[in-house]
């Protein structure tokens, strides 16, 4: 019986998220445009996430290279290390790890911020002040996450490759120029473009789930915490689902 | 000069009904609010007082009944008309609802900029300073809400309520959570605002000091209905046990 109730609640939640997303798609292009708030959110969501994304990207590239090296040595293909690391970072690890870090930092912050605004009646106050809170709070944030994550992912990929360069040089000796030549030679259009496109969907998922959880937060401070937590968990799961779908679609289209 | 009987009706609530599931919160609730009049809606916690003002401002939709504000029916307004009407109504939220991420100045600027009213920068500064001066907190203009005490936050919220020079002000439990001295200061401000700006106010409260000092009329909300509608002194002398329990 419990499993039926859980399944029912799950489907209800999926339906509510779909309705919230539909409302966003209907609302976002209609005036009035909250341009100032959108740029403010781009600054907060994009620029202020850069140090964390950069640091984790650098460590990711470095560790991945160090972990791969022993196996590459065993197979006698150590010289291919920059190419393998480059493909792994650009195609999969860079976008997905960046999106997960982004979901942790931005998804939770949006969930908590909107949740606390809801609990303290700030969203009602906005509506009374002649503002459409959905446009002002949700549309500006979802557009900012959708546009900022791809940029952060590109920067993270680049910084990861510098980490990988350091990793290659811990136990070997490769010039920066040779490293980059090997990385770029190994990559094709089919590696870069699908990976780049899916980051838009990751960004959209983080924004829409963070806003949905915060905007529909239950009354009370406990509800704010739950919204922040649920925003990260649901967005992270959604990132993996989108990633899975992206692989299938690119495979079907012959881009693999 | 207008007499009591010819005062303009600014808010008319008739036979309002609102329910949540099987719980009937408002049941044929009716009253009228006149210009330059303070009405306090008195009722127990959870009796539907806050629901009433949220229906009036259009944040909740009633199941039935009519709400006429300044001659216009709220339930028939489109979004643009509702926004224009809301510009004439001030709403002081129970939780103050100050925007945490904005300074006091930005909090006060927000309604000015949002209601499509064109103001020059100097005019905006003047309006903000006037509103802050009304609540005697001009020095807090660049502070964040988190830096203010509970009483100061309430007064800033009141300043924001006044910023558009509303004709009607809705107060949702304005003294809840405040110490008796600060609560008395807020009540005094409510009375000063009414006298200075000739506003009509609907005050939701269960603070008997607020009822006594701020009300011209008291509307008692019991079991979703308008149980009594009279002056504080008349109600205080009533022998009805449902009314008496509030004054004991």
Describe this structure in words.
- The complex is a heterodimer of chains A (256) and B (248).
- Chain A has 256 residues and is mostly helical.
- Helix content of chain A is 84%, strand content 0%.
- Chain A is built from nine helices and no strands.
- In chain A, α2 (35-45) runs parallel beside α6 (133-170).
- The mean pLDDT of chain A is 92.
- The radius of gyration of chain B is 18 Å and the shape is globular.
- Chain B has 248 residues and is α/β, with parallel strands linked by helices.
- The longest helix of chain B has 18 residues, at 180-197.
- In chain B, strands 6-7-8-3-9-10 form a six-stranded mixed sheet, with helices on both faces. In chain B, strands 2-1-4-5 form a four-stranded antiparallel sheet, with helices on one face.
- The chains are: A mainly alpha (256), B alpha/beta (248).
- The A-B interface holds A 113, 116-117, 120-122, 124-131 and B 54, 57, 59, 83, 86-87, 89, 91, 93-101, 110-111, 114-116.
| Biggest β-sheet description of chain A | none
End-to-end separation of chain B in angstroms reads: 39 Å
Count of the separate structural domains of chain A:
1
Largest interface, counted with CB-CB under 8 A?
Answer: A-B, 14 and 22 residues
Oligomer: heterodimer
Largest sheet descriptor of chain B: 6 strands, mixed
Query: Strand order across the biggest sheet of chain B?
Result: 6-7-8-3-9-10
Shape of chain B: globular
Rg for CA atoms of chain B? 18 Å
Helical amount of chain B: 25-40%
What is the average of the pLDDT values of chain B? 88
Please tell me how large the radius of gyration of chain A is. Answer: 21 Å
């Amino acid at each position: 019986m419990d499993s039926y109730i859980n399944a029912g609640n799950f489907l209800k939640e999926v339906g509510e998220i779909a309705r919230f997303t539909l409302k966003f798609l209907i609302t976002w292009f209609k005036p009035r445009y909250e341009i100032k708030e959108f740029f403010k959110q781009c600054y907060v969501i994009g620029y202020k996430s850069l140090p964390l994304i950069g640091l984790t990207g650098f460590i990711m590239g470095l560790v991945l290279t160090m972990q791969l090296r022993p196996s590459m040595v065993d197979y006698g293909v150590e010289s291919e290390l920059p190419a393998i690391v480059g493909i792994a970072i650009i195609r999969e690890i860079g976008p997905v790890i960046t999106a997960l870090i982004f979901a942790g930092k931005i998804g939770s912050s949006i969930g908590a911020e909107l949740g606390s605004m809801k609990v303290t009646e700030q969203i009602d106050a906005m509506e009374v002040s002649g503002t459409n809170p959905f446009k002002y709070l949700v549309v500006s944030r979802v557009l900012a996450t959708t546009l900022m994550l791809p940029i952060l992912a590109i920067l993270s990929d680049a910084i990861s490759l510098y980490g990988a360069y350091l990793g290659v040089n811990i136990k070997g000796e490769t010039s920066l120029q040779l490293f980059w030549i090997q990385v770029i030679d190994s990559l094709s259009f089919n590696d870069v473009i699908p990976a780049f496109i899916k980051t838009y969907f990751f960004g959209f998922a983080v924004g829409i789930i963070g806003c949905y959880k915060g905007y529909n937060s239950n009354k009370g401070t406990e509800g704010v915490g739950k919204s922040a937590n649920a925003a990260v968990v649901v967005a992270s799961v959604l990132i993996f689902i989108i990633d899975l779908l992206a692989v299938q679609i690119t495979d079907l289209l012959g881009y693999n | 000069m207008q007499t009591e009987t010819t005062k303009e009706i600014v808010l008319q609530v008739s036979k309002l009904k609102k329910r949540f599931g099987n719980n009937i919160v408002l049941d044929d609730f009716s009253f009228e609010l006149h210009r330059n009049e303070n009405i306090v809606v008195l009722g127990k916690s959870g009796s539907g007082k806050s629901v009433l003002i949220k229906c009036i401002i259009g944040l909740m939709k009633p199941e039935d009944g009519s709400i006429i504000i300044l001659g216009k029916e709220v339930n028939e307004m489109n979004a643009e008309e509702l926004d224009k009407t809301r510009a004439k109504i001030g709403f002081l939220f129970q939780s103050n609802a100050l925007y945490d991420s904005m300074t006091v100045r930005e909090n006060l600027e927000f309604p000015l900029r949002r209601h499509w009213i064109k103001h020059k920068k100097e005019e905006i500064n003047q309006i903000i300073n006037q509103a802050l001066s009304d609540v005697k907190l001009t020095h807090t203009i660049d502070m964040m809400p988190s830096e203010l005490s509970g009483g100061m936050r309430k007064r800033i919220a009141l300043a924001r309520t006044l910023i558009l020079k509303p004709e009607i002000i809705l107060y949702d439990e304005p003294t809840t959570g405040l110490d008796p001295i600060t609560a008395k200061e807020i009540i005094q401000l409510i009375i000063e605002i009414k006298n200075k700006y000739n506003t009509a106010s609907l005050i939701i409260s269960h603070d008997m000091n607020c009822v006594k000092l701020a009300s011209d009329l008291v509307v008692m909300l019991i079991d979703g209905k308008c149980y009594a509608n009279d002056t504080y002194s008349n109600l205080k002398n009533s022998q009805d046990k449902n009314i008496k329990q509030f004054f004991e």
